[in-house]
Amino acid sequence: MVLSMLLSVIAMGVQAQNEALISPEESETLLEKVTGKEREIDWAHMNVQFATSANVEFLNKEFSEAAFKVNRVRLEVLGSFSKKFSYHFRQILNVHSTPGYSLDNLSGSVELANVGWTLNDRLQLTAGKQAVQFSGYECWVNAIKVRYYSDFNNYLPCYQVGVNLAYKLHPDHELNFQVVNNRNGSNDELFSYGLPAGVEESKIPLLGTVSWDGYFIDRAMQLRYSLSYGQLARNRNVFYFTCGNVWDRKPFLGYIDFMYSREGLDSKGLISQLTAAGGNEGRTVKNVDYFTTIGNLDYRVSPHWNLYVKGVYELGNVFKSEDDIPAGNYRRTWNAQLCAEFFPMEESGLLLYLHFLHKYTHLTERACRWGAESFSEQRISLGLVYTLPVF
After folding, report:
1. Is the model's pTM score more than 0.85?
2. Which stretches of the chain are DSSP H helices?
3. Does residue 107 carry a pLDDT above 70?
């Protein structure tokens, strides 16, 4: 009898798992019940973003690898309803490891999961996982358009859970006031080598940002500036100043980004990883700052062809001596990129590209004392990018 009861419970559980969360017969949504109105869906859109390439890579000008890679696959769903509410969900589908981060309780593959509420003609509130309001064209443009990121943006915590209040001063000017987590998971997930001895965890791991977006000259000139401040650990804070200066009027697109961070602990890890060179036990470095300049010029030769040249210069420093790590410059990096893009069809998300990269990372004598060495990287990529509109 006990066995029969157990089998019945299991059968009921399996049946429950197979049932839909909402029955197809349940046509009335929660919104309709609350408002007493018919369902209002202003618009909805779903797309799949896909990027793949064949890469030939060199290290210190010596052949390293030739392989095909799927660089990015993303599913995006967005839309609005009831004229005042919007939603945006985006997930990366080709992430090798997608842990459930302990702080935001969300898989690392989910970039966006938020709801927006338009309070009036000037104010909009967004809650959930969202893009941090850092500025700079390379940072906020759709990632599928970037062939190779600067080190600064590659290690920036771009998507975090929090709230943002957008205030439209004017159709061409907007302010954003945002508070989000400054990390997704625990300190061990943020800092590869853990917190230094004597440094306590932060009880308020938040990042506050104020940003301004401005458009000039019939919106051809775009200026985006932001300031961010937060706490990495107790008495160890982080400050960001990021800005993008864009000229976008066909056939030219040009931009210059300036990005700076001053960090009580090395959250990007670019200097900290030097301490692990030569088989040493790595450690998290204190009092670092990073500065990056990015310049890019696109020229749309014809409706089917686009050419661009891009250059990046980056610095990594320790701004205050502490323990046995002296202040000064530790790394200087620059990269140059050339790219030709071909659009087989006009007004389509399909493009083919040929991309060349040369990157050199110079490590100073301060960095080399751990056994690290300067190096260069080269890459030739033949790729395809396609944004498939599902509906």
Report:
1. yes
2. 2-18, 30-35, 137-140, 151-154, 187-190, 365-368
3. yes
| Dist CA 330 CA 369 (whole Å) | 11
Residue with tokens 């030939």: 56
Taking the CB of residue 215, how many other CB atoms lie within 10 A of it? 18
What's the pLDDT tens digit per position in 239-258?
Answer: 999 999 999 999 999 999 99
Task: List the beta bridge partners of residue 241.
Answer: 227, 260
Helices (H), 96-235: 137-140, 151-154, 187-190
Q: Where are the domains of the chain?
A: 124-383
pLDDT per position as a tens digit, 283-308: 999 999 999 999 999 999 999 999 99
Tokens matching residue 323? 């323990």
The correct CATH number of 124-383 out of 1.10.530.10, 3.90.930.12, 2.60.15.10, 2.40.160.10 is 2.40.160.10
Contact criterion met (CB below 8 Å) for 141 and 248:
no
